[in-house]
From TrEMBL:
It holds the Pfam family Melibiase. The keyword Nucleotidyltransferase does not apply. CDD domains: GH36. PANTHER family: ALPHA-GALACTOSIDASE C-RELATED, GLYCOSIDASE FAMILY 31. It comes from Neptunicella marina. This is Alpha-galactosidase.
Length: 701
């Protein structure tokens, strides 16, 4: 046993990994073991408690107190937290993440459980540490574990920053779980806050998400998550109990696991990361790590960046004539897509053409697509796979496709009064492939608008007809269902655009590689348009085509600026006057609106900011004011500032040391000339604005 030692190692590329044992002053003298690299260290004590130390400012600042970071609960209710260190070894490791260093700490509990904690570090991820934990039953009798907890850390309140502004929160957080209330993914934390962030179903048809959480202060942030290639039914709890207690976060997994004598439980691979500013850097590193593991985002066709008109303004009772009459106006405004939305079908599940709208069936649908193309537009069709309505032929003839719960009951999809189909069942998949081939291969659509909150995650399936190896097959194989649809569409048309809109839910990361356009998916505010955009640019890439959804869903039903400034694709569901359609009246494009719509779409097609590089690491979406986003494109910097009513000085970050013209490109006004500080790469401008200011910085030389 190695109780006291000082061991320093140098990693490849000059990034240090260090492991040290030293006496610390607390209530008692105890050995500590530090394992880390350039940006972050985990420090363990003799009981294998740990805490996180940040080196981002090179001062080695502890972010919280020692705590029970990895432990298990037994079926008896006993929590096994203390593991006396028995061995510490170090060495190298080679994996898909590269050549790194590994430290293995082993401890024994009084209850006969041996815990091994592996901490790995890699030069390409200097602010992350990768954790693997196992538990071995060394007793002569079996034991049952009901829950394991991992990466349970604390982020203290920074007393030097708190109290400076009484209105400023101590913490902001990104939380990747999905909820039926379609809440913000990014929010300030208030004392008393607590959320489990379960990655399974949080409502009948709302589940899954991105399996990481990130909590940050103004000076530093802390994140944890799991790295499995399949979605897992973990929880990622975040709590902020009281003003000065700090925030806590962890990875938890509940399951009855019986360990026979000598058997070992291996938990999920997880990570801990530190960062400056907001959560964007964590998302970027997480995306890069998962790509190395095999989850790579799809290639993007140019068509995915083109602006969109959607017929949903006419809602389900649209007529084909209404759609056709609107096409020339959409093209005139500079839109390139026409989307036929919900209402073309008789029901979810059967997907027969509505005879009132398409009396000649396929012939009429093909004729509509031809008219969309003749108008100079591309055609996209709305579809809600995995849903089947009561009374449909599909439900009557193929009830074996249903996803059933543990009691043999159907699982509801609330918005359409439908039931789930199982994505892991071969017949469900074959049925979906047939429909994709019809939509794209026969009818001639160039894109799919796949829609519904139920698409993000599914419950475990207990249907005996499916012969699943495990009920969780439906959960794990949902992404494979989307891959099958995506691959089928791209095989027919390599430039097809596959948009998945999970209706307000936090996108399931494991599904993202199988779409080439994301969307703000029924945003409840312009804040959601912007914060979701930052999130999805982080998860998919800085030039990923993120659609801001119909502008009519933004604040005042006209906030183009929130989509435009963050580099989102613009879209609208405007209508033309239609006396027999009451829904259409709310979105009629009158003369005044048309002038505004024309201006924004002309500007969009001229600048095409989504093809630029979103620079999400320059500003903190929580603590910086005004809220600021930046896109770099064609050697220019495009800054977007947002605030209800601003009068002060804005800062331009990320500049080269030279002079720039500052142009309000929305109103075609030159505002100033600024010089970037050669040391900081920043410049400032005193200004006033309401709601937004979008400016372009043009290098003078």
């Amino acid at each position: 046993m190695q109780n006291k030692f000082h061991l320093w190692m140098t990693m490849l590329l000059g990034i240090p990994l260090f492991l040290s044992g030293c006496a610390t002053t607390s209530e008692t003298q105890s050995d500590t073991y530090k394992v880390g690299q350039a940006g972050v260290t985990l420090e363990f004590n003799q009981s294998l408690q740990s805490r996180v130390i940040s080196h981002l400012n090179q001062e080695g600042k502890s972010l919280g107190d020692f705590g029970y970071s990895e432990y298990v609960l037994l079926s008896s209710g006993e929590k096994i937290t203390d593991f006396n260190v028995t061995d510490v070894t170090t060495g190298t490791v080679d994996s898909e993440l590269g050549h790194g260093q590994q430290t293995l700490l082993t401890g024994q509990s009084a209850q006969g459980i041996r815990k091994s904690v592996s901490v790995q570090s890699y030069p390409d991820y200097p602010d992350m540490l990768f954790v693997k934990v196992s538990y071995t039953n060394t007793n002569a009798e079996p034991l049952v574990i009901t829950q394991w907890v991992q990466n349970a850390y604390q982020l203290k309140v920074n007393s030097l920053l708190s109290g400076v502004d009484s209105d400023a929160p101590a913490f902001w957080a990104f939380q990747g779980a999905s909820h039926a209330d379609r809440r913000d993914w990014v929010m300030p934390l208030i004392p008393g806050y607590s959320e489990q962030n379960y990655m399974g179903m949080n409502a009948s048809d709302y589940g899954s998400g991105t399996p990481l959480i990130d909590v940050w202060r103004k000076d530093v942030g802390l994140a944890v998550g799991h790295l499995d290639l399949d979605p897992q039914l973990v929880s990622l709890p975040v709590s902020y109990p009281a003003l000065q207690q700090g925030a806590s976060l962890a990875v938890e997994f509940e399951k009855h696991i019986k360990l026979m004598p000598g058997e070992t439980l291996q938990t999920l691979d997880t990570f801990v990361a530190v960062h400056h500013k907001d959560y964007y850097a964590t998302l970027v590193d997480y995306r890069k790590v998962m790509a190395k593991k095999g989850l790579v985002m799809a290639d993007v066709p140019d068509a995915a960046y083109e602006p969109i008109w959607c017929a949903w303004g006419y809602e389900r009772d649209f007529s084909v004539e209404e759609v056709e009459k609107t096409l020339p106006k959409a093209k005139q405004l500079g839109l390139e897509w026409a989307v036929l939305d919900d209402g073309w079908q008789t029901s979810e599940g059967d997907w027969y053409l509505d005879k009132n709208k398409f009396p000649n069936g396929d012939k009429d649908m093909k004729a509509l697509v031809d008219k969309i193309k003749a108008a100079g537009l591309k055609a996209k069709l709305w579809w809600a796979p995995l849903a089947v309505d009561p009374g449909t032929d599909l439900l009557h003839d193929h009830s074996d496709m249903l996803l059933l719960d543990q009691d043999g009951a159907v699982q509801d999809i609330t918005w359409w009064n439908s039931f789930y189909l199982c994505p892991a069942y071969s017949k469900t998949r074959e049925n979906a492939v047939r429909l994709v081939k019809k939509i794209i291969g026969e009818w001639g659509y160039a894109g799919l608008k796949i829609d519904g909150q139920h698409l993000n995650g599914v419950p475990p399936c207990y249907n005996p007809a499916h012969h699943h190896a495990s009920p969780q097959d439906s959960v794990n194989e949902l992404a494979e269902f989307w891959k099958l649809i995506y691959d089928t569409a791209i095989e027919i048309n390599p430039d097809a655009v596959v948009e998945i809109c999970p209706c307000g839910t936090s996108y399931a990361f494991h599904n993202l590689p199988y779409m080439n356009q994301t969307v703000s998916s029924d945003p409840l505010s312009s804040w959601q348009v912007r914060s979701k955009g930052k999130t999805l640019k982080g998860l998919m890439g800085p030039s990923a085509p993120y659609y801001g959804d119909h502008v009519e869903l933004s604040d005042n039903a006209s906030d183009f600026a929130s989509s435009f400034g963050i580099g989102a694709v613009l879209g609208s569901k405007f209508t033309l006057p239609s006396p027999n359609n009451k829904a259409a009246a709310a979105f009629v494009l009158d003369a005044e609106k048309e002038k505004t719509w024309q201006h924004w779409f002309d500007l969009y097609n001229k600048l095409m900011l989504p093809k630029g590089e979103y620079l999400g690491d320059l500003y903190d979406i929580g603590f910086d004011y005004p809220e600021t986003h930046v896109v770099r494109k064609d050697g220019k910097m495009f800054y977007a500032f947002y605030a209800p009513d601003f009068d002060g000085t804005v800062e331009f970050r990320g500049l080269q040391p030279q002079k720039y013209r500052v142009v309000d490109y929305v109103n075609n006004r030159e505002l100033a000339t600024v010089s970037a500080d050669p040391q900081k790469g920043t410049a400032t401008l005193a200004t006033q604005f309401k709601q937004y200011l979008l400016v372009e910085l043009i290098p003078l030389d």
